[in-house]
């Protein structure tokens, strides 16, 4: 049995299986649960799902072989190396093999060593995770190296956000949640940038300036007197037809003379 000091030896935050106490009893696996058959509607749509799945392109994947000293050697998941290189060429939008290797190494470093390989006696990374990163870059369909660089950055932002979101949800860290929210906005901005580079969406900005104008209307009803410099003014001239058509006011004089009206004296 290993001593207590060896039991606490850790590597990358995990207990090394070679230094742990192997005499401890192993936990028994639970029996497989009985699951029901699929719903008839779901089963009926299986053929349509298969057709859509077969129409999707096959993304490039990778196999990792241990190279000693916790290093990995990547290779094709099939026996056609030339075909695999062409897949990587499509994924990274380049024909230069050195550029493919550079992007491949950057994505490779995003993966953490988390699987212990007892046969190789070294820590291994999850090759499914690396294949997922390749598939995400391939989904952007970069046309050149710059678009491939933006796609690789999107992959990095996505995995960082998922790690921070996991920690924020588990431990309720408000500051971590805020950083995860900023990364989500960054990912959206990057996606918009990809769409603009591909010409799918153009951003149009329109500036509208609102001004307030005041109009003052003056009306002068002083008969024949003309207006000089007032805005929107008009001169009202008496109409003879209107004056003749009106009846005279009654007068105490039976002769029919009109009643004289008082007028202000003008200077």
3D structure, described in words:
With 267 residues, the chain is mainly alpha-helical. It has helices spanning 4-7, 40-44, 46-55, 81-92, 97-109, 127-140, 145-171, 174-197, 240-244; strands at residues 10-11, 14-15, 63-66, 72-75, 113-117, 122-125. The strands form three sheets. It has a two-stranded antiparallel sheet with strand order 1-2. A hairpin with a 2-residue loop joins strand 1 and strand 2 (14-15). It is elongated, with a radius of gyration of 43 Å.
Give the structure's gist in a few sentences:
The chain is mostly helical.
Outline the fold blueprint.
Layout: H1 4-7, E1 10-11, E2 14-15, H2 40-44, H3 46-55, E3 63-66, E4 72-75, H4 81-92, H5 97-109, E5 113-117, E6 122-125, H6 127-140, H7 145-171, H8 174-197, H9 240-244
Antiparallel strand pairs: 1-2, 3-4, 5-6
